[in-house]
Amino acid sequence: MSRKFHKTVFQIEVLSEDPYPEGRSLVDIAYDITEGECSGRVHRVSSEELDGRAMANALIEQDSDPEFFGLDQDGNKIDDNEDDGEPDFVTAVINEMEQQGDVFYTNFLMTLMPPQERLSDDDGEETPAGSGGKKAERRQFRGPGC
Known about the structure:
Layout: E1 5-15, H1 26-34, E2 39-50, H2 52-61, H3 89-100, H4 103-112, E3 118-120, E4 126-128
Antiparallel strand pairs: 1-2, 3-4
Helix pairs in contact: 3-4
């Protein structure tokens, strides 16, 4: 079964006393409408289902990357399980920090690592994948004035 993707187009209408400035972010527009001096509403213009190829093309058209949804340039699923023998970036950084003994940053980076890339020792403690099973000791970080 092939993956399904969706493309939805919205139009934002803003009513204001002065010409509305170009380049405002969606957050700024929402603020101007809900808290500021403007009135506005959002219209759903269209919604369509896309296959992988169409989604890859739509992402490229947005100056994004098909890898955002795990696709290659042709819209085919990228094999996440493909092992090129090199550790991913986070694992490589954790390994380097462990070798240098930087426990705080190792623990911090482990929170950024997806759960499937963490290993669990017999006692249930998580260690970074590729760390050789070394556990990072837990330390509480206290900033200045603490």
